[in-house]
Amino acid sequence: MSSMWGNNFKVSLFGESHGQGIGAVVDGVPAGIPIDLEAVQHELNRRAAKGKDLATPRKEGDQIKILSGLFNGRTTGTPIAGVIINENTRSKDYEKTKDLMRPGHADYTASLRYGGFQDYRGGGHFSARVTAPLVFAGAVARAVLKERAPQLKIGSRIVSIKDINDPCKPQIADYQQFKNLIKNPEFPVFTESLELPMLAAIKAAKAAEDSVGGIIEGFAINMVAGLGDPFFESIESRLSALLFSIPAVKGVSFGSGFDLTLKNGSEANDIFRIEEKQVVTQTNHNGGINGGISNGMPLVFQVALKPTPSIGKEQQTINLATMENTTIKIEGRHDPCVVLRAFPVVEAALAICLADFLV
Amino acid sequence: MSSMWGNNFKVSLFGESHGQGIGAVVDGVPAGIPIDLEAVQHELNRRAAKGKDLATPRKEGDQIKILSGLFNGRTTGTPIAGVIINENTRSKDYEKTKDLMRPGHADYTASLRYGGFQDYRGGGHFSARVTAPLVFAGAVARAVLKERAPQLKIGSRIVSIKDINDPCKPQIADYQQFKNLIKNPEFPVFTESLELPMLAAIKAAKAAEDSVGGIIEGFAINMVAGLGDPFFESIESRLSALLFSIPAVKGVSFGSGFDLTLKNGSEANDIFRIEEKQVVTQTNHNGGINGGISNGMPLVFQVALKPTPSIGKEQQTINLATMENTTIKIEGRHDPCVVLRAFPVVEAALAICLADFLV
Amino acid sequence: MSSMWGNNFKVSLFGESHGQGIGAVVDGVPAGIPIDLEAVQHELNRRAAKGKDLATPRKEGDQIKILSGLFNGRTTGTPIAGVIINENTRSKDYEKTKDLMRPGHADYTASLRYGGFQDYRGGGHFSARVTAPLVFAGAVARAVLKERAPQLKIGSRIVSIKDINDPCKPQIADYQQFKNLIKNPEFPVFTESLELPMLAAIKAAKAAEDSVGGIIEGFAINMVAGLGDPFFESIESRLSALLFSIPAVKGVSFGSGFDLTLKNGSEANDIFRIEEKQVVTQTNHNGGINGGISNGMPLVFQVALKPTPSIGKEQQTINLATMENTTIKIEGRHDPCVVLRAFPVVEAALAICLADFLV
Amino acid sequence: MSSMWGNNFKVSLFGESHGQGIGAVVDGVPAGIPIDLEAVQHELNRRAAKGKDLATPRKEGDQIKILSGLFNGRTTGTPIAGVIINENTRSKDYEKTKDLMRPGHADYTASLRYGGFQDYRGGGHFSARVTAPLVFAGAVARAVLKERAPQLKIGSRIVSIKDINDPCKPQIADYQQFKNLIKNPEFPVFTESLELPMLAAIKAAKAAEDSVGGIIEGFAINMVAGLGDPFFESIESRLSALLFSIPAVKGVSFGSGFDLTLKNGSEANDIFRIEEKQVVTQTNHNGGINGGISNGMPLVFQVALKPTPSIGKEQQTINLATMENTTIKIEGRHDPCVVLRAFPVVEAALAICLADFLV
């Protein structure tokens, strides 16, 4: 297996949910980039548990310690290792159910793949907890972008929670002022009035010992034009590979995505225009990407996150040791909706992808 | 840029639409695999032009010539180079419009990326024509799969053409007998009665000098369980990177994809059961993948293809040399719907991805 | 830059001599391999400082802490991160001389490459200290080899210290019993009587505030035959890349190496023979490798290590800040001969290379 | 196996000695680089057969045909495929001896590695003939260097043929004027008077149906300073991996190489000086590389080439089919000394390595 990614800005992830620690080595970062440790920690805090109502009660701390690659507050050009020591683990929670394959989880496939030697506690390396080091790498990537493309901004919004779908169809101009549209950065929805119903849907799922999913849209404005390549190094290819590595992601689309299939070519083609001596497009159905390469319009993509597979409700399943049908009731901590913690991860993936193209 | 892909089964694409030739080097193929040259050519023929009514009138031949890596009908273990010499090119068609940026195409972004040095004739390396070598590589991959996983079968179906959507929601058992469901392999739709209306939609687009897109579903049955890894080497990450390298693909999803966001966790989780001493799932919302690793159920994914950007209709655009707004009317040959040629390419991508995991 | 290596068994190094910590992530290790933590620490201890007479007085501890990838004493199949927290650093030693470019060191080239942002203390990431994580990775590789090729043994010997050259020309049979030939594992020389004169040469260099280099031979016996490939994946290509990444290595040769150029083809060709129904060669001038692939004979290579560039003697040099000629007298700690610490590193490189081919 | 190399400037080799064709795909070349097709062919001609006296009588033509990646005489930024169609092959020569393992060749190891499916004719993919595409890639790399570092020059010289060793120990100034020192570019030796004795040694070997090897020195002057990185991306690591992929290379060293082990640190350290406001070193024992990174002095390395393993003399060997000892007398064509054809290949490897660092 390989938890390494990147052609230029390279990330090597490690760690298990209930092991000694998790972390990442980020390699290929240019020398001399200022790293604001508070900004890095802030990104990790955005991803961390959101309180008892809506996310796992485990208090995750997620204090990152950087072991290398920084000197006098700037990158040295050599690998940057960040480590989070795991605390507050409750390994015992998982032992008694280790042979019960949690539906929707990797327990069964990990057993096949690793011959039963995987760390089964809390999903081990498959845990969404390992997205914390990804967010760390994303924070380093953001610092790189700040130097190399200072005008570029990264954002994300919640498009839907279950069937509560934001009807807003943002235009190019809307993305440019996304910071104004998002009133609550901890619940980034363009149509502000949807925050409460969306939260209610999550709470209802929690009350029912169930879970819900949703759609996140990520975007970058003031994009550097001319990034990417045709075929395997297209922005779509590179970014989707990163996005699908986020646990629970089952769909990725760019621009108008699947809805593009409903249009004629004459509608789907984004018309080029000269405006103020700049090349722009009138619409952005292609999400700012033509032929795999950025055209300078907002880079826009959507990510479908399935409902958290860990639910409190009793479920049918199998005991892999006895090869018998049985039931499972998952104890322990889990989020009723992964969307609330995933948007900083989606942004991190975008930052990493863009940094990989820019360094 | 890099038109190379693969960790183990590696593909290196080359060629431009109107250059001397196109092809691929396939590296990492084990020695001793029988290669049926007719079967390889058959895959290329499936992708090639479909006749004057529905696809580009250019007669593409696409005769593959293998220069290396085969000896006495079997792979040698060393790189396999396949070359298609371009014939019937009409470069002149493109010269007069080279400064007019075709909407929805890579003309503008290629100019940014390659400083105007790209081969602009017919899209150059960005042309869908370069999927022919990808299909060649896929045919080699199929030969590998035939040896390494003889029971595994790869297929695809048309889910939609524009708004004509196949209402069929296939169950696990349906995929197992997909060859019976598809009556016309050149138009693989599960609900047979939709072939005519779908064709009519394409013809209507053609008549209007416009184009349409659609959704293709790819799948593999009798899957090898335990392939893939968490994070960057998940099946989703690896396969999506390949699929998004196919021109016109703007969305990729696995299993129930974006629809999974509408379900509760208790519905979305595919329940494990023991049946005839085998582990199976009752549903397949996760498309045969848990935690990035195959669980043995059919591997199922959907691909959104935008309408062909080349249309005969006059469109607004810019002249990049003069930086003026203008219009373009694309002469030459083009397909009114890319779906009909894309499904063999989607299957090739799947075969390549699986071969990369299996060798 | 990239401190990552490997196609299958992948190593990602990090750390600076006087930073917070050094370490490595090892990715691609199969699941279920038993890891003996004492054996791992033993390899690190072999590399660590040898006492005040012959090596740097810095007491390096080098206690490795494994953060991930192990569970119940076995590998999980997911990345193994090992960290050594730096202690006993004396950063102040380096501040006053930071603009003086130490001859033979990377101070000047690092300034060019990293724009002056590198951690200059003790050579930063360029420090030989970063070979400790390489030895950690090598220890994991040895555990893999023990499972995959239990008969294979790795060893090394000192061929020369400065001009004191071991006249022994070992034959194939000698390598097979190398553990008998090496009387003192901390000073592995085949001609035992050379230990004292070699040590005397090192002590003489130390007394003169100077340093000496030497040649180490690495080898593997009971080799797995059929490893490697022609061209870029030859054993020679892969292993030399690893060996040249060890600081101070300036030459690598296989088998009879440069001396092969003095022979005729009829002498240099190792004659194949059938002995006891096995294919063997009578001589081993090619070091067990034909066409980049192992032939089952002992894999033998030599590594030239230049004298440690850090010496106490005053040297001419430049001040890069003032761009003036000046002199430097390097204070602090340094080894009079890198050979004594390098042979465990050479063995680690060999183990990593073989594990990369075998997993 | 993988005949692909490169992080940025990527080369994918293919072909067998007696297959349909050989070639390379070069990926990652920036757009807009002028390619002089005559200069490319000239490099191939330098490598090709040198006439009946000293090299194989096979007339190899080696006419390169470029299929892609060029447009109007310049690179497009997309992959450049070059193909040489094999002519004048005499496959029958090899059939009768296919079970006889030629000593010093890859016949036996290829049988192990590829299970007997390798193309055994003339060594197949292991043939030195496959260095022709490497020289093609090198010619493209030279074109890149000409744009990116126009002052940089690449050269090579013959240091020894068998025991005839050029006593010249060139100083930094000598390399700067190497074109003056080399009187006969087809036999590049600094001490001109050695050409005849060296040729005599080769002819003597040929007369005796034997072969000889030698040492080639490659170098680059007016080097770009600051290229490379510590550890796995050091110039030494990257370049040695390329050099060892050239058939017959068994040793690689940088600067004074193995002789550095005979010096004290105070001699081996190249003293830095300011001269005419430039940083220079007084000596160049480190071959222009400190800590893996170029320091601007001439990059100098030596390559040991063993005697051509193909010799006319009868040799003992085995029949792998019958597992019996026997003898072989190699018919067909072969070079009495690989050095005469290898120096353009060594230069190509250097050009490729430098282009990979520079793009």
Order of helices and strands of chain A: EEEHEEEEHHHEEHHHEHEHEEEEEEEH
Strand order of the largest sheet of chain A: 1-2-3-7-4
Query: What portion of the residues of chain A fall into strands of 2 or more residues?
Result: 15-25%
| Overall radius of gyration of chain A | 21 Å
CATH topology of chain A: Chorismate synthase, AroC fold
Tally of DSSP β-strands of chain A = 18
Mean pLDDT of chain A: 94
Largest sheet of chain A: 5 strands, antiparallel
Q: What structural category do the secondary elements of chain A indicate?
A: alpha+beta
Low-confidence stretches of chain A: none
- The second-level CATH architecture of chain A is 4-Layer Sandwich
Number of domains of chain A: 1
Oligomeric form: homotetramer
* Distance, first to last CA of chain A: 26 Å
Shape of chain A: globular
Proportion of residues in helical segments of chain A: 25-40%
Which pair of chains forms the biggest interface, and how many residues does each contribute? A-B, 105 and 106 residues
**Main CATH class of chain A:** Alpha Beta
Let me know the CATH homologous superfamily of chain A: Chorismate synthase AroC
Task: Please tally the helical runs of chain A, counting DSSP H or I stretches of 4 or more residues.
Answer: 10
Describe what you observe in this structure.
The structure is a homotetramer of 359-residue chains. Chain A is α+β, with helices and mostly antiparallel strands. Chain A has a single domain, classed as Chorismate synthase AroC (Chorismate synthase, AroC fold). Chain A is built from ten helices and 18 strands. Chain A has a five-stranded antiparallel β-sheet with strand order 1-2-3-7-4, covered by helices on one side. In chain A, strand 2 and strand 3 form a beta hairpin. In chain A, helix 1 crosses helix 10 and helix 8 runs antiparallel to helix 10. The longest helix of chain A has 20 residues. The mean pLDDT of chain A is 94. Chains in contact: A-B, A-C, A-D, B-C, B-D, C-D. Chains C and D meet through strand 1, helix 3, helix 8, strand 11 and helix 9 of C and strand 1, helix 3, helix 8, strand 11 and helix 9 of D.
